[in-house]
Amino acid sequence: MSDPESSSSMLRRSTRLVAAAITQTVSHSPTPPSAPLRRVRTVSKSTAVAEDRRVDGVPRRAAKRAKVEVAEAEEGVNGVTAKETGSSLRKRKSEKKTLPQEDEDTDIQETKRKRKGKKKKAEPEPEPSLSDFAPRPVSDWKLGAHVSAAGGVENTLVNAARIRANSFALFLKSQRKWTGPALTEESIAKFKLRLGSLGYSPQDILPHGSYLINLGNPDEGKRVKAYECFLEELQRCEELGLLLYNFHPGSTVGAVPMDTSLGYIAECLNRAHKETKSVVTVIENMAGAGNVIGSAFSDLGGIIKQVKDKSRVGVCLDTCHMFAAGYDIRTKDGWRAMMDEFDAEVGMQFLRGMHLNDSKCDLGSMKDRHENIGLGFLGLRTFHHILTDPRTRGLPLVMETPQYDDVAVWQKELEVLNRLSTLPHPDEEVLAGWTEEIRAVVKEASVAMERKKEATKVKMAARKRKAQDDVEVKEAELSELSDLTDEDEAELETQNTAA
Hints:
CATH topology of the largest domain: TIM Barrel
Pfam families: AP_endonuc_2
Helix content: 40-55%
CATH architecture of the largest domain: Alpha-Beta Barrel
Number of helices: 14
Mean pLDDT: 83
Largest sheet: 7 strands, parallel
GO molecular function: DNA binding; DNA-(apurinic or apyrimidinic site) endonuclease activity; phosphoric diester hydrolase activity; zinc ion binding
Region (Disordered): 23-137, 462-499
Protein name: Apurinic-apyrimidinic endonuclease 1
Shape: globular
InterPro entries: AP_endonuc_2, AP_endonuc_F2_Zn_BS, Xyl_isomerase-like_sf, Xyl_isomerase-like_TIM-brl
Radius of gyration: 44 Å
Number of domains: 3
Structural class: alpha/beta
CATH superfamily of the largest domain: Divalent-metal-dependent TIM barrel enzymes
């Protein structure tokens, strides 16, 4: 600790030094003491205020420096070393004042970066339950539709419940691609959870295979590719706990006899049954255009006879397809005759599901053109035959009719079909009234869809015009730049540098 007397003498000595410094600064100043120095500071656009830079005849800067030197001398008395100069002391003081602020600014910036980089997680939506939807009809006939799997296969159960369906179909991946992203663990878990919470059973669900699959193709390379797609979809069924898988048998592509292609299909089924555990492969009857396999029940029977594990194979009957192939099921007798032929050629025990579709084309057209229930050549009476036949009870009966992006269409069709299943002998007037109900809903949905299409066209046209305008502007700018002289370019460069 320093002696008080020596500290006092140090203070007096520092004061004398400061006074001498002030005198020296004033004597060397180029401006006479009588000539005041002023600095103009702008206060507004039209006002300037003069600020005197002298304090008692001494330049303000020199006076300020003297004040600092005195303060340094005082700090020296309080423990500042003599070697520490005024400038270093000021620097040390400045650091003491600025460092906390710099640290604070750094912390704020770091926090902002963290907040910016850390996205807020969306709140998970609550799981749907039966109470979220209108009650479904209680019926022995499991009526439903082919619903969308957009956003994940787990959403099919929600979409089915929304239309009050008691069964449904879905695509396990894109129906027009050979492969697709694997099912995520989350999707699988949610699908199984909703299966129970929304009151569905695996027997009520009839997944549909990819349209690309042709197990009857005589080209071995293409058949192998089709089989790999087929097997992948069967494995997806097993991951989801589903029991059925519906697929189109394919085509001979006009290269081999029908029996040869039937053998190829059976061979693929036998192999797939060995490579999977329990899924039933359900063959669909077809409309019969070109070299398509399966328009005749004898084709389906020919495949099944060659399948070794008969418990792993079945048939799905499509009403539009059989009508297009020449089976007239519009009358009760016609329906019975068709079912008798199916039983003889295939076996009623192999019927595992149906696709309920009206037809836009007449009997025997061999054209696969689906129409809304009651609005095509089949009419509501045909579906009454189906829904009063005990052999269709408990099977997934799935519509593949036009939806028009509106659940109201399927809701109305299912409502009418469920009514049909409860009436033993509906008269023509009742059927005509119900047909008009469906027609009205379809018309409204069709108009809404057309408006949506027009709005989309207008929006796309506006985007196209804007893109064209942008291109024209850029082309004009490029044209102007190409006309610039060397002097113009030099001037632009100068302006850019100044800016």
